[in-house]
Amino acid sequence: MSLLHTRNLTAFYGDFQALFGINFAVDSGETVAIIGANGAGKSTFLRSLTGLLINDADAIRFKGKAIGALPANHIVGAGIAMVPEGRKLFPSLSVEENLKIGNYSGREGPWSVERIMDLFPFMRQRRHNPGAALSGGQQQMVAIGRALMSNPDLLLCDEISLGLAPTVIKDIYDTLPAIQETGTTVVVVEQDIQQAMAVADRVYCFMEGRVTLEGPPGNLSHDAIREAYFGLKGAV
Amino acid sequence: MDWINAVVQGILVGGLYALFATGLSLIFGIMRLVNIAHGDLIVLASFLGLVIVTGLGLYPLVALLIVVPLMFALGYALQRGLLNFTLGSDILPPLLVTFGLSIIIQNALLEIFSADSQKLPAGPLQTASMQIAEGLAVGVFPVIVFACAVVVIAGLQLLLYRTALGAAFRATSDDPDTARLMGIDNRHIFALAMAISLAVVALAGVFLGMRTAFDPSIGPGRLIYAFEAVIIGGLGSLWGTLVGGIVLGVSQIIGGKLFPGADQLAGHVVFLIILVFRPRGLFPRAMD
Ligand SMILES: Nc1ncnc2c1ncn2[C@@H]1O[C@H](COP(=O)(O)OP(=O)(O)O)[C@@H](O)[C@H]1O
Ligand SMILES: [Mg+2]
Predict the structure, then answer these.
(1) ipTM of predicted assembly, 2 dp
(2) Are A21 and A210 within 8 A, CB to CB?
């Protein structure tokens, strides 16, 4: 049975429909990447999973429970954490406070402030700095650490490579195995197709609020991806 | 000595203004809500004090043990049951609703207590004073009020910057949606903020009633003092609010000495002058 699946999930911003019946599943231990152009609905999908957008209860099932109608503040306690697009550190909290508030729900598990700092050692020197005083890559690492502090079963990462230098992106992705070792399943949203293909066991491609392609990276041809991603047939 | 005396009295009055303003500052800082009914809630607390003092025969300072928890509970219920529904990207709904609330409170108080002036009996404390230097005496009661203001602000500062709940307050203030992702229930946090705000209002209301006469119509005037103290100090800074209250108090007393009868006007003028030269107040918060 899958860890999380959605059935015919829709999302609206007022009258504007952003998602049209998404069917998605991720198994425990599997790494899934969601790719798609800007505006395809990837972030909206993650916002739905985390309860920031409310759905029918049955539209989202997590560990067998219908969670689609749970408000956001109950989702993290159920075991889903998100690294939001644009990092969204709390500017008036220090690095350490940002991490600690990640465990506001009190969910127990392997992660602690010290263990996060083992994973990202630069934080030891920056413990008391405000989050905003860090570089983009460091802020991203704090955002990941903050999400891990809730000891999630499922970690959703929204464009964690956005705007970062390739070496920093590599540093961040190099920490994935250590995260997965603790039993956390990871879903990454990426605009960078190469990056997505490299880490994922399975890929979903979104376009204009719909899933246009799904499968293991090895089974997907360049042409199929291009068509699913850009909606273009043939060569570009 | 006369002038030193005036400044000292002004500083002490500033403590009361700071108590008027602290709750306003706190909820604006946490949820960007401007509570137009704040002054009327202060007067409501004065009347609650009056009911308890006359009904149970308690000394006003002892009545605080009942008024403060009552106002705390009222604040929680008010935010949870009404004001939370007005919060959003538009700042107009909370303004309109608290404006309406202000009118409702004034009229209800008028209906129940009439327009007569009331006073909470302070007893000997009313006139007790102590000599702190040759020719310089201060009232014991104003000193108590000022000390309370300092303790309240220091306590709130500790709460905000040294506790997990305080971090949740600040996180919610920074970014309510991301705070919810952490498991923080915004509606509860906002309700707690309003509860704390009205607990401080309870102190302010009872002190006000012990110091001067009050009637149902004086709320808006207290709101103006509170606003001025908050703006002078800088939005979102609690210590700034104390300084704002002191600036206001000193301006009034010195203004009243220079131009008898112009004490209130002097406070407003100094407020406007500060607004012109320091539009963000004396201690603006770095963030915002
Ligand atoms: N807060 C919002 N209000 C209205 N429309 C929105 C909002 N957020 C996103 N959208 C719209 O929803 C669609 C999907 O956006 P999003 O999920 O952010 O895409 P992606 O993350 O794939 O770039 C876009 O057309 C976007 O303009
Ligand atoms: Mg996005």
Answers:
(1) 0.92
(2) yes
